[in-house]
Amino acid sequence: MSQHFQHDVLIIGSGAAGLTLALNLPPQLHIAILSKGELSNGSTFWAQGGVAAVLDDTDTIESHVEDTLIAGAGLCREEAVRFTVEHSREAIQWLIEQGVPFTREDPTARDDGGFAFHLTREGGHSHRRIIHAADATGAAIFKTLLAKVQARPNIELLEQHVAIDLITESKLGLPGRRCLGAYVLDRQSGEVETHSTRFTALACGGAAKVYLYTSNPDSACGDGIAMAWRAGCRVGNLEFNQFHPTCLYHPQAKNFLITEALRGEGGLLKLPNGERFMPRFDPRAELAPRDVVARAIDHEMKRLGIDCVYLDISHKPADFIQSHFPTVHERCLDFGIDITRAPIPVVPAAHYTCGGVVVDNHGRTDIPGLYAIGETSFTGLHGANRMASNSLLECFVYARSTAFDMLEQMADIELPSNLPSWDASQVTDSDEDVIIAHNWDELRRFMWDYVGIVRTSKRLQRAQHRVKLLLDEINEFYSNYKVSRDLIELRNLALVADLMIRSAMQRHESRGLHYTLDYPDMLPEARDTILVPPTYAG
């Protein structure tokens, strides 16, 4: 018999956005946070950079807004940018109050004795405005917020719980469209539970796992985007996927980024024969923006049919390399690469999903009672290219805004009861897991080849043809066999891949992260790509 659980708020995802939402809700509410695997499996834990915010007296809200609009290639929604930046300082203040150990400023190094924490500067920013905890900001934030959540008796952390689908009034044949909860697979028992709730928040991260090479953890499967689409929510700008130009290429090295600072300090990109290639693509060579460098590497790999290129800083003194890049040096040594003597094999890797579920400034989706926050959402902040360190800021600002909106309505919303159990009567155990593994590999490979850094109309048509065949096969499999995490993720990933392809096919220009050889110019008018599901009620 399927188990039923009730919560005031169900949060699907245990990263920065989900934990922040939980901590900004009052202690008398019963809150459940779902994590597909272990709690630290999300992208937050691995974020190296920091959080962008207007914190220094010499910086201004206008400057941060302008920098973001420029980076977004004309596609940011200015209202969302302004909302995020205007609330940046209070979000950082809240993190400091929680005890996040941000790197402090040496008071003797500043004339004005101003802000107590060290601020760094990253690509696209005109001021020092990135507050950070050394080069492991995400881990510091995650550990701090998790400890706070664990100390709250009203918050239940459910590890190894995978959300399958949202339960809505319309899906149950009831009048209205409200989200009433979700069906959730408990991986340890193998049973599907029914979770009913007043409010549900999708905080599941992005969809970079749709690509063969990614800097993201295995959990980044677009689950929230897929569930929201099936429930009737619009999605926006899914053609914009940010690629980090240099990810370590090694069969055992999953998701390890080689920081851009390595190129900033003189690292050179080379072909297998030792020849530099960046000067042929951009006068700034290795110091060109991320998307330019990623496109150049992708071009050379496709032109020569090679698996990777090489990033070489071995011409610098060994002690300089070890003192500036201790983490990279140590990690590469684990794989037998001494960067003081040899170049590093690198490939571009899918890094951040700029589009997602359409939401307003309170994280509200098209479905009453359903919110989306963090990388799952499309707020309009990032436009056609995310600016460094704005993504964590978005998590905190929108999670806090969502908490406020939920509280305003809480007294008027009754807890749903008598939701039907998951029907598993027609399914059997599968002994064909090889099909899931094969489809997973095929999907990620053709997305990399056809819907990657450089696109053409023909490549997109090929991808669309293949993803349709995959979706038919996956849906048949899903109808006949018991659900598993692998099957749920594959189903979601294939759906989001289809949405990405459809979005890319609609954009007849090159803008920001969407670069197509068939339409190399940017159109004079910037428009969002909004896809509307068949179940959308307007």
TrEMBL record:
The keyword Oxidoreductase applies. The keyword Flavoprotein applies. One of its GO terms (molecular function) is L-aspartate oxidase activity. It comes from the Bacteria. InterPro entries: FAD-dep_OxRdtase_2_FAD-bd, FAD/NAD-bd_sf, Fum_R/Succ_DH_flav-like_C_sf, Fum_Rdtase/Succ_DH_flav-like_C, NadB, Succ_DH/fumarate_Rdtase_cat_sf. Its cofactor is FAD. It catalyses: L-aspartate + O2 = iminosuccinate + H2O2. Residues 8-392 form the FAD-dependent oxidoreductase 2 FAD-binding domain. Its EC number is 1.4.3.16. Its main location: cytoplasm. Keywords: Coiled coil, FAD, Flavoprotein, Oxidoreductase, Pyridine nucleotide biosynthesis. It is found in: Cytoplasm. Pathway: Cofactor biosynthesis; NAD(+) biosynthesis; iminoaspartate from L-aspartate (oxidase route): step 1/1. Pfam families: FAD_binding_2, Succ_DH_flav_C. Residues 453-480 form a coiled coil. Residues 441-521 form the Fumarate reductase/succinate dehydrogenase flavoprotein-like C-terminal domain. Belongs to the FAD-dependent oxidoreductase 2 family. NadB subfamily. Catalyzes the oxidation of L-aspartate to iminoaspartate. NCBIfam families: nadB, PRK09077.1. This is L-aspartate oxidase. It comes from Azorhizophilus paspali (Azotobacter paspali). The gene is nadB.
